[in-house]
Each structure stands twice: as structure tokens, then as C-alpha cells.
Design brief:
Elements: H1 12-23, H2 28-35, H3 40-51, H4 55-61
Helix pairs in contact: 1-2, 2-3
């Protein structure tokens, strides 16, 4: 929205609270909700405008706690191709 008021991060106390929550390891979505933003990307842009760096990068640079994601962080090892010959050679790949 053009011509809107200042972002909620313009207040120094709100910015300090956002930084504190980021250092505690809260997700950017949760921090945005607790600070008063409707969406996490609008919070990230406001944080970038005020601080000069994205919230995740700021947390990493300042030694914040990084909690691993529940899904998608650890990958299983790649599967080995099946062996079909007695001499243990892998199956040939056919070009289409």
C-alpha cells in the first residue's frame, strides 16, 4: 500500500523485541505475528529496511540459536543402484 504509515518496527522497543525473539530461536513467522505484522515477508522487508539485513541473516551473524527444521533437514543417503548380475555390475542405463 502506497502512502501507508510507518512500519511497526519504527519503534525502537519493538525492534529490540524482534531482535530478542530472533536470538531466542523463534521462527520469522512467529516473530512477525508477535510483533504485529500480518505476514512474515512484510516483517522481513521492514526488518531489512530498518536494520539493513534480512532477519535470518541477522540471527546467524549475531550468534542466535538455530533450531533445525522438523522436515527436510536431514536427507537419507542416496540409494544404490540394484545389482542384477552375478558379477555385481550395476544395471545399464538406457537412453531414450
Amino acid at each position: 500500500m502506497f502512502g501507508g504509515g510507518p512500519s511497526p518496527l519504527a519503534d525502537p522497543e519493538t525492534l529490540a523485541r524482534a531482535k530478542e525473539l530472533l536470538l531466542l530461536g523463534r521462527s520469522i513467522d512467529l516473530v512477525a505475528e508477535q510483533i504485529g505484522f500480518a505476514r512474515a515477508d512484510s516483517f522481513a522487508w521492514a526488518f531489512l529496511r530498518e536494520v539493513g539485513i534480512r532477519p535470518g541473516a541477522w540471527r546467524t551473524a549475531n550468534g542466535g540459536v538455530l533450531r533445525p527444521r522438523i522436515c527436510g533437514v536431514f536427507r537419507s543417503p542416496p540409494r544404490r543402484r540394484r545389482l542384477h548380475r552375478p558379477d555385481d555390475k550395476p544395471m545399464p542405463r538406457y537412453k531414450r
